[in-house]
Amino acid sequence: MTEDLPGAGELILLAGLGNPGPQYAGNRHNVGFMVLDELAARIGGKFKTHKSGGEVLEGRLAGRRVVLVKPRSYMNLSGGPVAGAAKFYKIEPSGVVVVHDELDVDFGTLKLKFGGGDNGHNGLRSISKSLGTRDYYRVRFGIGRPPGRQDPADFVLKDFSTVERKELPLEVDRCADATEALIGTGLAAAQNSFHAG
């Protein structure tokens, strides 16, 4: 296993974070689900309920075998379903890629990284705890900081703004491209292609 390429030669787990239920579907916090839905469309399959506590879809992306996972738990309990699926499919943390919203990255900007802290993101905190390590890949979809004095906890549970919604399909598509690049060409090449500036 090289640190640059997730789960080299093995099955890769792609987890998208969000909250279940239609009332959350358009929230900033649910962009991980949106990206996984786009990846599922590319595979041409439908998610099925899995005993790990998530919805899963197996297929191929970027020439690699993947299993897509959307936890059916709330965001702050994402770790159970993600770790459960990783255990079921015998995937090491180094073969796990988590797609999530990121407050400290501007809307329209993507950042890819391996390991690091959770930056106050409850979904990541739960996953790190359940996996027993922070050493997994992250695809960070920028949502920006809330305006004025709005509480970040409220901000992430609001839908994208009207202006953002016009760009959202393009950005979700680009994030799906970046995720495929990460698993197909490795971290450094994907960062070179998708990090701005």
Automatic annotation (TrEMBL):
Transcription regulation keyword on record: no
The UniProt site entry described as Stabilizes the basic form of H active site to accept a proton is assigned to: 101
Alphabetically sorted, this entry's keywords are: Cytoplasm, Hydrolase, RNA-binding, tRNA-binding
Catalytic site positions: 29 (proton acceptor)
Site location (Discriminates between blocked and unblocked aminoacyl-tRNA): 19
Give the EC number(s) under which this enzyme is classified: 3.1.1.29
Keyword Cytoplasm on entry: yes
Q: Which GO terms describe its cellular component?
A: cytoplasm
Q: What is its main location?
A: cytoplasm
Q: Which reaction does it catalyse?
A: an N-acyl-L-alpha-aminoacyl-tRNA + H2O = an N-acyl-L-amino acid + a tRNA + H(+)
Which GO molecular function annotation, any one, does this entry have?
Answer: tRNA binding
Residues bound to tRNA: 24, 74, 76, 122
A single Gene Ontology biological process assigned to it is:
rescue of stalled ribosome
> Pfam families per the record?
Pept_tRNA_hydro
Q: Where is the signal peptide?
A: none
UniProt-annotated location(s): Cytoplasm
Oligomeric state and interaction partners are given as: Monomer.
Family classification: Belongs to the PTH family.
The family database entries (HAMAP family) matched by this protein are listed as: Pept_tRNA_hydro_bact
The protein's role, per its UniProt record = Catalyzes the release of premature peptidyl moieties from peptidyl-tRNA molecules trapped in stalled 50S ribosomal subunits, and thus maintains levels of free tRNAs and 50S ribosomes.
Q: What is this protein called?
A: Peptidyl-tRNA hydrolase
Can you name the source organism? Amycolatopsis mediterranei (strain S699) (Nocardia mediterranei)
Give the lineage: Bacteria, Bacillati, Actinomycetota, Actinomycetes, Pseudonocardiales
